[in-house]
Amino acid sequence: MRILALDTSVAACSACLWEDGRVLAGDSMPMMHGHAEALVPLLARLRDEVGLDWDSLDRIGVTVGPGSFTGLRVGLATARALRLATGVPVAGVTATRAWAASLPDAVRATAGSILVAIDTRRGDMYAELFRASDLVSLAGPEVVAASDLGVFMQRAGVASVPLVCGDASGLVDPLVQAGTLLAGPDIPWPDPAVVAALAAGAVLQDGDDVPSALYVRPPDAAIPANGGQLRPGAPAP
Q1: Contact, 3 vs 196, CB < 8 A?
Q2: If we measure between CA atoms, which residue out of 7, 26, 185, 210 comes closest to residue 96?
Q3: Which pTM was predicted?
Q4: Using an 8 Å Cβ cutoff, are 88 and 80 in contact?
Q5: pLDDT for residue 53
Q6: How many Å apart are CA 188 and CA 35, to the nearest integer?
Q7: Contact assessment for residue 59 and residue 210, using Cβ atoms and an 8 Å cutoff
Q8: What pLDDT is stored for residue 234 in this prediction?
Q9: What is the C-alpha separation between 154 and 149, in angstroms, rounded?
Q10: 3-class secondary structure, 74
Q11: CATH number, domain 2-95+189-201, options 3.30.420.40, 3.90.79.10, 3.30.70.260, 1.10.10.60
Q12: DSSP labels for 170-225?
């Protein structure tokens, strides 16, 4: 199976062309902003490097979140455009599962559970707990403050000390130092080859739909109490 994998969920623009477990071409470019300008040229470069047409793909894999609101929209919009142009189906992969699966097997074997903590850039994190042996989700993803991680793990019934990965080191380091969490290797973003492998095993949605974004946090914008009317008595837009 030949797959194009995209990840723009966090502080990198990543993609790879993957075929039956082998990376044909790939790259990850660190960036906090600018995914929209960087992704399409990156894909064109990888395509030219391998020398293939997009319609020769069997599947497109894309991270759906949680992560950066803008970054997720860029990745999903690009996947949707390729889907419309080629008819190639799109499989969604959560960024948390891709990050957990990016840990080497030997590292995962040392822990009973894995906590993926993604910095929301708002003083808290997107957190999801997985069973290390098979990456079954135990809790989350949800927005969790560092001070509430203990309750989050207790609710999931985690007895052992979880291995932590993700980009929220500034929030979880005190818990690592206290022995509440076990520090994992430094993996700054999900491996796009892992996104491809997970997409290969994903069950596709029926029809032509591209997976929806998993934002987790509700949008900042809210409908006012008057229903969005410009003035009392005015018809709602």
Answers
A1: yes
A2: 7
A3: 0.90
A4: no
A5: 95
A6: 16
A7: no
A8: 47
A9: 9
A10: helix
A11: 3.30.420.40
A12: HHHHHHHHTTSSEE-----S--HHHHHHHHHTSPPPSTTPPPPP---SPPS----T
Tokens of 111: 């822990």
* 69 Cβ contact list (under 8 Å, min separation 6): 215
Q: Tell me how crowded residue 170 is: count the other CB atoms within 10 A of its CB.
A: 11
**pLDDT tens for each residue of the chain, 237 residues long:** 999 999 999 999 999 999 999 999 999 999 999 999 999 999 999 999 999 999 999 999 999 999 999 999 999 999 999 999 999 999 999 999 999 999 999 999 999 999 999 999 999 999 999 999 999 999 999 999 999 999 999 999 987 899 999 999 899 999 999 999 999 999 999 999 999 999 999 988 766 678 999 999 875 555 555 554 545 554 444
The full set of domain ranges for the chain reads 2-95+189-201, 104-183
Report d(CA 146, CA 37) in Å as an integer: 33
Amino acid at residue number 225: A
Tokens of 58: 């069997």
State the Cα torsion 195-199-202-206 to the nearest 10°: 130
Amino acid 152 reads F
In CATH terms, the fold of domain 104-183 is Nucleotidyltransferase; domain 5 (3.30.420)
Task: Judge if 2-95+189-201 and 104-183 fold alike in CATH terms.
Answer: yes
Q: What pLDDT does residue 203 have?
A: 87
